[in-house]
């Protein structure tokens, strides 16, 4: 059916059945971008991208879809359960107590896309999605045929969330507390997490240049629950033990992190959400070939950076896509 993004965008609801966390029936939403004409007047390409968002997020980045289309990819994006287009009024935004629950919509999205596209699939994810996808790929890669047998050729992570912020002792003690509370009071909200610094940097009605639905992506973010953060920390621990995603990876991140209690123009040119040193530290845990590109002046969502920085990010992306094409032909 037609999608909220307008001409060229369609959406498909993916029924997932009863919620393992007891919040009714859950669905995910697969968005498809189909321009009227692809580059060179060619028919729809025989390869595709599947994009997965992060926490307090959903797919709205039309410029990203259009860029991949210009590079010869069909573009799909997945709004995960309880996120964006997929969330029902009675459901806790983004709430899961186990990241493996997302396997259901990831595998269904892959099935749908492979039914339409005969060539390779490129996976792209941002922030928390950049943790969810590698964990899933590691599990997928252990099956007969592995990741390649599932049609996946590469992985692009945009500021993936590979560890909790802060000093190691606080991360350790905090994780113990989160694990304890998260088991018995999974929907309890962690205090002191509401901060609109990043949102104010992005949204057009604040200080930024991007337009999106504030009901689906509020400036200060959705409340962080103990159960959800417990699931994330268990995912971090699995990542830190080492994964094998089975395909080459590109990691794009900002060169700098800047924390600020309120909006400051300095956060327009840095990651105001994650510690980029932690991204660099744990990037080697993905297995296979990994290319890490720090981009000066990039925001947390590298593809929502200021125009000059976004141009650099797209140039780095295209260089890697060219390399991946050559690499795939030599295998």
From TrEMBL:
Principal EC category: hydrolase
Region Disordered, residue ranges: 1-23
Domain of life: Bacteria
Mitochondrion found in the keyword field: no
Signal peptide (residue range): none
Serine aminopeptidase S33 domain location: 44-256
EC number: 3.1.1.5
Keywords: Hydrolase
InterPro entries with a match to the protein in the record: AB_hydrolase_fold (IPR029058), Hydrolase_4 (IPR022742), MAG_DAG_Lipase (IPR051044)
Keyword Ribonucleoprotein listed: no
GO MF: phosphatidylcholine lysophospholipase activity
Name of the protein in its database record: Lysophospholipase
Species of the source: Rhodococcus aetherivorans
């Amino acid at each position: 059916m037609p999608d909220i993004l307008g001409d060229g965008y369609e959406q498909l609801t993916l029924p997932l059945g009863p919620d393992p966390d007891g919040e009714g029936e859950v669905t995910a939403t697969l968005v498809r971008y189909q321009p009227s004409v692809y580059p060179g007047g060619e028919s729809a390409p025989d390869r595709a991208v599947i994009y997965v968002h992060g926490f307090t997020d959903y797919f709205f980045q039309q410029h990203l879809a259009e860029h991949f289309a210009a590079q010869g990819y069909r573009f799909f994006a997945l709004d995960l359960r309880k996120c964006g287009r997929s969330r029902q009024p009675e459901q806790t935004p983004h709430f899961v107590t186990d990241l493996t629950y997302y396997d259901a919509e990831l595998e269904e999205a892959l099935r749908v896309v492979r039914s339409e596209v005969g060539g390779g699939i490129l996976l792209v994810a941002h922030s928390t999605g950049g943790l969810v996808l590698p964990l899933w790929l590691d599990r997928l890669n252990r099956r007969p045929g592995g990741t390649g047998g599932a049609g996946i050729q590469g992985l692009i992570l945009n500021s993936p969330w590979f560890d909790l912020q802060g000093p190691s002792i606080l991360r350790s003690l905090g994780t113990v507390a989160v694990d304890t509370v998260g088991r018995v009071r999974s929907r309890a909200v962690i205090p002191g997490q509401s901060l609109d610094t990043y949102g104010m940097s992005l949204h057009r009605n604040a200080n930024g240049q991007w337009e999106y639905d504030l009901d689906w992506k509020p400036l200060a973010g959705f409340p962080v629950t103990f159960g959800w953060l417990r699931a994330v920390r268990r995912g971090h621990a699995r990542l830190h033990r080492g994964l094998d995603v089975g395909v080459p990876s590109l990691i794009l991140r900002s060169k700098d992190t800047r924390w600020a209690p309120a909006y400051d123009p300095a956060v327009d040119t840095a990651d105001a959400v994650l510690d980029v040193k932690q991204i660099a530290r744990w990037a080697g845990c993905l297995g296979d070939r990994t290319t890490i590109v720090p981009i000066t002046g990039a925001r947390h969502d590298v593809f929502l950076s200021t125009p000059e920085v976004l141009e650099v990010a797209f140039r780095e992306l295209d260089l890697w896509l060219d390399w991946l094409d050559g690499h795939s032909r030599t295998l």
